[in-house]
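Structure first, sequence second, as always.
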């Protein structure tokens, strides 16, 4: 069984000036508990679905992967935001570094993978150049079925397949809402296979549905184990989750505007990008549930140790007191690479040290330096990164963020602020029904030449 623990010493008054007092912590633990009760009620009523994903029957996903074994050299995921970031976190965390560069046998005969998220022709062009349509599976993922970037990249891939006269049924699958949306209609039109995102699971809470799990299974990740880790969190992670929620809530309500997540492992870089979306979109809200203007939220920042010690740390230690930092530590690592510093005097101190010890030593040194400067932090310690612990971390953070929204009376499951820009884009592109939005855009997009330098 993998272990996850929480060390919040350096968030507390006992260790840093202005740290949290025990009374304050207790007060916010009570709030977190109330949030958990409300969240559980929403889950029981079927309003919120992400916790129940651990009980999903994934045999259809596993059968699909089994039937397609050896048939594909490349898998292209077409999706953006919640439809791609979870998969990227999984592959970055669990597959070998440079996986796509490995030979087929070194990849265990699993396909390479590509993520078509941005509508950036440079990226899309090169993905297609790498792939042979006859040996490629594309998975188009969109819960709403209408996201413009996904629609556009899908159209490119659809045309590419047709130009090469491949049978779409063997090369294209979709993941979308079970009944609604354009992608669901297209599934019917093209008669292709589709997997579903449950309607009560929002995009950024969907990593443990087919959205994250199907592509992950196709590249050889043990998705059953990911769900086991997530389920383990639900049954055993309560203390860590409530304490983290309480601490984040204290620093949020104290006005710390920046929430840094800093894993000490390059393998968790994409996890912090996934976290950024989860935190930013869920908690950044203008209105609370009673319609009051609250401008709630804090800015998530993903950093990676040790890399960002040479980029961001100066600011974290000596800049404004506007940040709270969460470190992620891996206790055990996959490889032991020993250093031989015996041949050069100034490197002697590294002799006999291995890279893992150096990495974690730098983490402890950074924590201490920040503590000395009274900068609050806490640390999630994961004994070893694998499918199980990734599942745990995904579920932990989804619970924390959802609960923070609930206890602050905002909706952590919608994203009204994203809609306006989307609607303007539809208007500019003359989408039917968006004329008013085009006109509104034209009025807001007016610019004075006086303020343009050429
Ligand atoms: O969390 C969300 O709902 C969003 O960030 C979506 O994941 C993102 O906009 C993509 O949406 P869709 O899956 O509908 O294409």
């Amino acid at each position: 069984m993998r272990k996850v623990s929480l060390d919040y010493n350096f968030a507390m008054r006992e260790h840093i000036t202005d740290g949290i007092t025990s009374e304050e912590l207790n007060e916010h633990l009570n709030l977190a508990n109330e949030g958990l009760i409300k969240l559980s009620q929403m889950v029981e009523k079927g309003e919120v679905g992400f916790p129940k994903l651990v009980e999903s029957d994934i045999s259809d996903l596993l059968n699909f992967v089994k039937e397609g074994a050896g048939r594909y050299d490349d898998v292209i995921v077409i999706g953006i935001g919640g439809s791609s970031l979870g998969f990227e976190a999984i592959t970055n965390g669990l597959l070998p570094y440079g996986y796509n560069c490995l030979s087929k046998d070194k990849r265990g005969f699993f396909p390479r993978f590509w993520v078509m998220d941005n509508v950036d022709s440079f990226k899309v062009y090169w993905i297609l150049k790498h792939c042979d349509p006859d040996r490629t599976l594309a998975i188009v993922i969109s819960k709403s079925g209408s996201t413009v970037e996904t629609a556009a990249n899908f159209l490119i891939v659809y045309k590419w397949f047709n130009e090469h006269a491949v049978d779409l049924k063997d090369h294209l699958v979709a993941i979308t809402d079970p009944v609604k949306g354009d992608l669901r209609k297209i599934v019917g039109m093209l008669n292709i296979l589709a997997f579903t995102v449950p309607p009560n699971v929002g995009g950024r809470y969907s990593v443990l549905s087919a959205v994250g799990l199907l592509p992950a299974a196709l590249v050889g990740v043990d998705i059953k184990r990911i769900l086991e880790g997530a389920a383990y969190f639900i049954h055993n992670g309560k203390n860590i989750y409530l304490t983290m929620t309480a601490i984040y809530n204290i620093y949020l309500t104290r006005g710390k505007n920046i929430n840094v997540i800093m894993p000490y492992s390059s393998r968790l870089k994409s996890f912090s990008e996934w976290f950024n979306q989860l935190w930013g979109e869920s908690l950044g809200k203008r209105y609370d549930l009673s319609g009051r203007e609250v401008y709630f939220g804090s800015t998530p920042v993903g950093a990676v140790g040790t890399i960002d010690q040479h980029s961001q740390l100066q600011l974290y230690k000596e800049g404004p007191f506007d940040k709270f930092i969460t470190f992620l530590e891996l206790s055990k690592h996959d490889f032991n690479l020993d250093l031989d510093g015996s041949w050069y005097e100034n490197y002697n101190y590294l002799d006999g040290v291995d890279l893992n010890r150096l990495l974690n030593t730098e983490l402890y040194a950074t924590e201490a330096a920040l503590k000395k400067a009274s900068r609050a932090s806490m640390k999630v310690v994961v004994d070893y990164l694998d499918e199980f612990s990734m599942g745990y971390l995904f579920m932990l953070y989804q619970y924390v963020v959802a609960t923070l929204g609930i206890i602050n009376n905002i909706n952590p499951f919608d994203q009204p602020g994203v809609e306006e820009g989307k609607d303007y884009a539809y208007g500019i592109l003359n989408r039917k029904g968006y004329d008013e939005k085009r006109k509104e855009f034209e009025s807001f997009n007016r610019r004075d030449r006086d303020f343009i330098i050429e």
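Margin note: Residues 22-44 form the longest helix (23 residues).
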